[in-house]
Amino acid sequence: MTADDTTHADREKFGVPINREVETRKQLCTGETAFVCGDSYDCDQQDQHKQYSLNLDDVYEIISSKRRRRFIFILATLVRDHDGDETPQIPVGDVAEHIAEDTFNESTDRKTVYISLIQHHLSKLDEAGVITYDERGKKVQPEVGVYQLESLLLGIEQAINIMNSPSGVSE
């Protein structure tokens, strides 16, 4: 059974949230990715976005790191909170600060997170086409993949909550 075989009724029955906006967009215009677009994506303006196609191994690699998962959530939130029509470039230091604040380990400070992002994580996300990383300016700009991965991670989180609930359904 594929995800497409699951009906709205089945999803509602098991407490899986339905994002109707996401479902009406189906896939990216290229159809090369397995994820539906969780953020507005205008097919006529596709050339303004990085072209990318992630296979399952790429996705597993990207989400295997807790720091990259936090980065995806925080970047998406910072961009949504931004006023303006254009997608902003967010300083890496701002994202690092939020990640450090979210970390329960007291020894994790902003500088450690910042260095880790610069040396290990941003290049992977940039190569995958999930973000655009300006090395010189130390700024990141999300591409549509950030929102797709955010939706995927939220879905995984929801599924884990369902599996861990005593009744086996979302509360």
Automatic annotation (TrEMBL):
Annotated DUF7344 domain residues: 60-140
InterPro entries: DUF7344 (IPR055768), WH-like_DNA-bd_sf (IPR036388)
Protein name: DUF7344 domain-containing protein
Source organism of this protein record: Halopenitus persicus
Organism classification: Archaea, Methanobacteriati, Methanobacteriota, Stenosarchaea group, Halobacteria
